[in-house]
Design a protein that fits this description.
279 residues; alpha/beta; Rossmann fold; Cobalt-precorrin-4 Transmethylase, domain 1; four-stranded parallel β-sheet; 41% helix; flat; binds FE3-S4 cluster; oxidoreductase; 4-hydroxy-3-methylbut-2-enyl diphosphate reductase
């Protein structure tokens, strides 16, 4: 049986960096916790827990020690609380997310009405808009929502890093009709679209597609949806033990990809297992 593994399978740059920082910090610090699970992988969170990293949801619940800030980032208020409580932050905010936060601060300081394309309740978005200081950021999901924005003299436009370029472009189009001056920072990180495009390409060449990653990971679930549309024999699993040999009856070529928070050891385990099936 032939296995095609996507080059883009697994950790993106920001998640890899956050995970490395977390494991390193766990070696050097005690007590230590992370503000929310460091990534959407129960297996990685469990390994970090074994190394003493507790998951805490609110800064108020941390009395002392080191706190790891995950790749999505946190709000400016939470960061201020961390400092006020004399906690030691290990900032694993993805540099691409940090950049959006900085652009929002800059645009507000220069008097732009800031519009952010993204999901209102996502922690990354909550973090980003908190950097507007006193100003308010209008969060819109798409061009339809952008149509409802009031006209402004100047608009500053940014995006949540995981947005699609098409959606961002459509909102930019609407903003151009709402203001005489529009300043656009394309803050989309292409790790997601690169992974999705590669998954689409592989799904069309194989008899069965395996998607690896947390069931609570939005980007992994989306990968599974994309592949299922092209290859009905698509299975989303978190770990190798969930794979059933009977899925592979008559299968000659298997495609494998994994979400941005799936660790390499899980990918390797799956490759070993699938490689052991005779077909
Ligand atoms: Fe950063 Fe892009 Fe990953 S924004 S966390 S490298 S998906």
């Amino acid at each position: 049986m032939k296995i095609i593994l996507a080059d883009s399978a697994g950790f993106c740059f920001g998640v890899k960096r956050a995970t490395q920082l977390a494991f390193k910090a766990a070696e050097d610090n005690c007590p230590i916790c992370s503000l929310g699970p460091i990534i959407h992988s129960p297996q990685v969170v469990e390994r970090l827990e074994e190394k003493g990293v507790r998951v805490v949801e609110r800064v108020e619940d941390i009395e002392r020690g080191t706190v790891i800030i995950r790749s999505h980032g946190i709000t400016s208020g939470e960061l201020a609380d961390i400092h006020a409580r004399n906690l030691i932050p290990v900032d694993a905010t993805c540099p691409f997310v940090k950049k959006v936060q900085d652009y929002v601060t800059l645009l507000c300081a220069e008097g732009y009405a800031v519009v952010l394309v993204g999901e209102k309740d996502h922690p990354e978005v909550q973090g980003i808009i908190s950097y507007a200081d006193q100003a308010e950021v209008a969060v819109v999901a798409d061009s339809e929502e952008a149509q409802r924005l009031p006209s402004q003299s100047k608009i500053g436009l940014v995006a949540q890093t995981t947005q699609s370029f098409e959606n961002f472009h459509q909102v930019a189009d609407v903003c151009l009709r709402k203001a005489k001056e529009v300043r656009v920072f394309n803050t989309i990180c292409d790790a997601t679209s690169v992974r999705q495009d590669e998954a689409r390409e592989i799904a069309q060449q194989v008899d069965l597609m395996l998607i690896l990653g947390g069931f609570n990971s939005a980007n992994t679930t989306r990968l599974a949806q994309i592949c299922r549309e092209l290859q009905p024999r698509t299975y989303h699993v978190e770990v190798a033990s969930q794979i059933k040999p009977e899925w592979f009856v008559g299968v000659k070529v298997v495609g494998v990809t994994a979400g941005a928070s799936t660790p390499r050891w899980i990918i390797d385990e799956v490759l070993r297992l699938v490689g052991s099936f005779e077909n």
